[in-house]
Amino acid sequence: MKSKFIAIAGGLLAATALAGAPAKADVKIGLIGGVSGPIAAMAPSMVSAAQLAFQQVNEQGGILDGEKLVGVVGDSACNPQGGTDAATKAVNIEGVSAIVGPHCSGAVLAAAGSVTIPAGITVVTPSGTSPEITGLDDKDTVFRTVPSDDYQGRALARTLKEKGYDKVAVAYINNDYGTGLANAFKAEFEAQGGEIAGFAAHEDGKASYRSNLAELSSGGADTLVIFDYGDGTGLTILRQALENGFFEKFVGGDGMKSDAPINELGAENLATFVASSPVGEKSDSLDIFNDAYKAAGGDPDAIFVTTSYDAAFLLALAVEKAGGDKAGVSAALREISNGEGEAILPGEWEKAKKLIAAGTAIDYKGAAGDHNFDAAGDVPGTYALFEVGADGFEVMVEMK
Amino acid sequence: MGFLELINFYVIPGVVLGSIYALGAVGITLVFAILRYAHLAHGDLATLGAFLALAVVTALGLPPLVALPVAMIGTAAVAVGIDKAFYEHLRERPKIVTVMASLGIALMVRSVVQVVWGVDSESYVRGIVRPENYFGLRIKDREIYTLVFMIGLVGVLQLFLAKSKWGKAMRAMSDNPNLALLSGIDNKKVVMLTWIIAGGLCAAAGVFLGINTELKSMMGWHMLLPMFAAAILGGVGRVEGAVLGGLIVGIAEELSVLVLPSEYKAAMAFVILLFMLLVRPTGLLRGKVL
Amino acid sequence: MELIGLANYALFMGIFIGIYALLALGLNIQWGFAGLFNAGIAGFFAVGAYTSAILTSPAADGRLGGFELPFFVGWFGAMVAAALIAWPIGKICLRFRSDYLAIATIGVAEIIRLVIKSEEVLTNGARGITNIPRPFGDLPYVQSQLAYLAIVVAVLIVAYLMVQRQFNAPWGRMMRAIRDNELAARAMGKNVEYRRLEAFIFGAALMGLGGALFAHFNRSITPEAIDPMVATFLVWIMLILGGSGNNKGAILGAAVVWIIWSVSEIATDQLPHEYAVKAKYIRLFLIGLMLQLVLRFRPEGILPEPLRGDTRADDGAVK
User: C222–A109: do the CB atoms touch at under 8 Å?
Assistant: First the structure.
């Protein structure tokens, strides 16, 4: 029996060696995400959006010396152990030049702390929204294309106050996404003079939240703000609130802007539901991305696909600009997205390649925003409030 | 807060949830009594049952209640199969080994569900259903069905245990396995029967949870602790105890939001469990202490 | 894939194997020596990780902390905290029979996880604690991993030697006597409850230490690390596979299972994307299946418990 296990372990190590053998000439970028685990429902579209970017690169001349750009998928399982494991494999076995992801903030912090910062590999996370990432001592290698929860929470608070929502109740999921958004929202909403008539966290995955909702509505608010995932518990809460008539108006964070509520609950029941989401300032970028992604069979409304695409495309541009030098990727990343230079829209790889070769400065304008990274590698982001229209979500108003 | 509000938003959801827990807890208490170990894969069997029903609903377009018997039979078959393939060989070993194995089985069943049906949230029917108003009580049809079916299924089970030959054999095995063997009861058949019943009830628990909320691959695992709390609260081996325990745990969970911060709702079942084990391990209806 | 990449990966695996080996050693004290089914490993792991994090990280708004003590103080504190938590839990739960203990410890780990996620003043809630100092963390990649591996191995050796010494000592024999025949042990006047509690606390302390080492390696700790799958179940299968009751077995089991777990992902990642995702779940299925097969065909594990109960050289006179 002992020998069997040694044989299995040896066989797997051999498989690893084989894995590394082909594709020497390819340039690899890691795609680490929560493929299994709590956000497993959201991960596949995020990965496919990033793969779309790589596909466009390969179709339009390839990267560096016409080499193929390959996205290497790794599974963080949305926890630190998986994140570090996947990052280590990506950096050491696959030899990636950069990483898109991980998706969950906890995995980002762990992977950065243990692997990518010491190894000097640049990381751009499309969905890690925890404010803790801002404070990482990262030698300028950790970036994100999604704004920190702080920004979105505050922007949503201001917009709601402007639109006349004075008294709201807040239900948020008890994880770093929900707590971050909820706290930022509360601080800004109260600072603007609004009243929070109920503020409660809830755990994921319970069968009934009616008692939670009853508690929240006892404060007298007619609007419920939900910071949760539309693919998960947020759907349950929305459904039970609608069915029992708890609130009249509903507001969601970007996690709630997903197809699942529309599909499961029906657009006719969601007339008073609005959700915020990061968008690009120039809607051109967003339109281009939406068309391309739809053509490739994806759903452009899926959560975080715009940020994933942008992260992937940005890193491809950065690798090209750095000329294949892994250590230079982070500096290159700043150069190609700092607000100065010729505008590059999603999918314009060929144009960008020519400009980089000619030494001209370029500035990527992404589907999820301009991504002019600040000193900590964060982006301020622009948001819009979406309502449910005849054909999915439609922009209602821009958020400040 | 008004009395009606208390009933509508706390007690009724608690009763519905409690019925679902009761269905699972009865299975757990039977396995505890007859096979004498804690079966940690019970929750994930419920998940399997719910998704089997989903397969029937999507394939044939039937309502979930019609798919329920199919799911029950399917899950029962899987339960018997698991017993034959895995647990049977561990029968001579200390029971704790089987408990460990059941933890692994839980993982296996869950991953099968994840491979076959994916990890997205599903539901049986689209759209929302507003509750009906019966003299100020707001109850949905599906909630009434849940309670009625639970009472019906458990009632049938009680009749079976009390009157039929095999039911009496099961009770004999539960009370004294050696004596039962001596009096000619076929051990293996009783065990198989136990798994059929437990599997079927698990499926019912899963289907009703899916009817009342959504189907997710972790739905059963999250129910495991409350179901165990219910079984132990009622008294191990007592079917009525499991029902009573289930209802109490369900209502307590919902009422706990009034006193505890809402994120600790999930801890309520555990507190009940611990409390019972410390204060009165035989449970409310004086079951066994194994 | 260059040689240095493979070397780095091996170093990384070594560190993780070391940490998991500590957890498995702790579980071995609880299960292998004393027969206690602790299904809440994740909870003690978390308590250790967070205690060390709170003691050693710089100050942050709204959270208890800012002590910035040296890392070994943090690690020692982690062991003490895990032991302190284990004490009341043990006093309450150890009297239950083993499957009740399993359920109770599942619940305990769940409660610990909820508290960590919700009490922001203590743990920064769901956001976790960052900027945890890492010994030799400022060296270049390879060297810093090498240094950390050396530290982990040193800690593991010390723990192993201590546990092994206890195993061979009268204390170890008494523990096994209690495990195998409680009535007889009690009849001989041994204080069974107290001994069980001792074993539970020592095991928990080692688990806390493992948690601390993990947190310092990643320089951060967040509540998702307290996942029952990764933190609890994996350690169980490591111990069962390696050989419960055998300290070397615990370490061997950690190595074998972690290698299989980590490397199998490389194999599945080579598949086309849709299958790669499904393959992740098939991996979980196979891990569960592996447990069943080990329990059935080789329940004593790769390295069985030494028969006579100690590993001192047999002087041959007995046979």
Answer: yes
